[in-house]
Amino acid sequence: MRVAPFALAALMLAAAWPASAKLPCAAKDRACLLKAAMKSPVRTLDFWAKRLADPVAERIGPAPQELVDYLEIDNAVNGFPEKPRVAKLSPEFLADARGALADLLPVLRKVAGPTFAGVYFVEDLGGTGFTDAVREKPGAAPKAAYIVLDAKVLEHHRANGWATWKENTPFKPGGGWTLEAKIEEPAEDTRRSAIRYILLHEFGHVVAATRTLHPMWDLSPRDLPAGAKWPFFDLSWTSDRQKNTYASKFDASFALRKSVVYYLGAKLDAKQMTPAYKALDATNYPTLYGATSFGDDFAESFASYVHTQVLKRPWSIRILKDGQPDYTYRTCWDDPRCVEKRDILEALLK
Ligand SMILES: [Zn+2]
Question: 221 CA distance to ligand 1 centroid (A)?
Fold first, then answer.
């Protein structure tokens, strides 16, 4: 879901940060906010060293106050009105979250054991999940990454209800068109399964943060190192240093892609559900959300691959018109269109 999208400033000083600061700038002073964000201790490896020394299964719990302060600044920078708070977790919720993490431990230890700084819960995050990278020094390559989830959003959701809600967000409802996402069989359609699936997507960002599969999400195209190769990115995306833009390789065949916006207000009409998914079926993006940015392309590919191919769970999008099935979209892992992405994921998970 969200990743911290700051463009990196050239020079940043690591400075002490009060343990429970109020927003340190005027809410509209973007330059001041960016500077404050860059100084946050949560961007440094030192802050996470203790957590990284814990067993992987224990790196979970309420967010530390410094992280909540950082998220408040990030929200102000990105125009989210929410003011995050440390989550108060019920024992039942914490048991589900720990269970979801436990379900993923075999995969997680393989791909991100030493670089996973943990999963932390807040309330009023603005979105369901957030991932950011941690560096030894500003400008250095990331050494670890952590995940933030909104406990209040997850509290009342089961897996299929959450997935159906999310996958409807790009479309304005109406005209008798509906869309149903199925990511679990009825017996497994639980809150724990919803958290597991959401964690898998965020783990995708954690995995990518310390590898060169795609450029770091906080790097502007003009700052990409010359001659760098990004094996996953190169399958679906291009960059233009002069114009300072990233683009999809499928924009000619999938013109609706640019109108696919999740969470922040639908741009597509419900009657465009089937055309959008038919066009998606001719790309190498495994999911519609994966077509929105290269970072989410990898996170969605990782989540979709592990969920369906490793954990052997169902995944489908069913589009209905007046209650009658119109089109069903499934994952691409058995199709030639995704074979190169499949090879990269298989190599990672070996
Ligand atoms: Zn994401």
Answer: 19
Where exactly are the structural domains of the chain? Answer: 1-156, 157-350
Is the pTM above the cut of 0.85?
A: yes
Distances (CA, A) of 59 to 93, 118, 290: 16, 4, 27
Average pLDDT, the chain: 91
What is the per-residue pLDDT for 46? 94
pLDDT band at 38 (very low <50, low <70, confident <90, very high): confident
C-beta of residue 208 within 8 angstroms of C-beta of residue 347: no
Nearest 5°: CA angle at 122, between 116 and 128? 80
Q: Can you read off the two tokens belonging to residue 25?
A: 């700038």
Exposed, middle or buried, 227 (CB in 10 Å: 0-12/13-18/19+)? exposed
Distance CA 304, CA 314 (A): 10
* Span from the CA of 269 to the centroid of ligand 1 (angstroms): 23
Ligand 1 centroid to residue 317 C-alpha, Å: 19
The rounded Å distance from CA 1 to ligand 1 centre is 3
DSSP annotation of 288 reads T
Distance 323 CA to ligand 1 centre (A): 31
Ligand 1 centroid vs 148 CA: distance in angstroms? 11
Distance 3 CA to ligand 1 centre (A): 6
On whether the CB atoms of residues 347 and 213 are closer than 8 A, the answer is: no
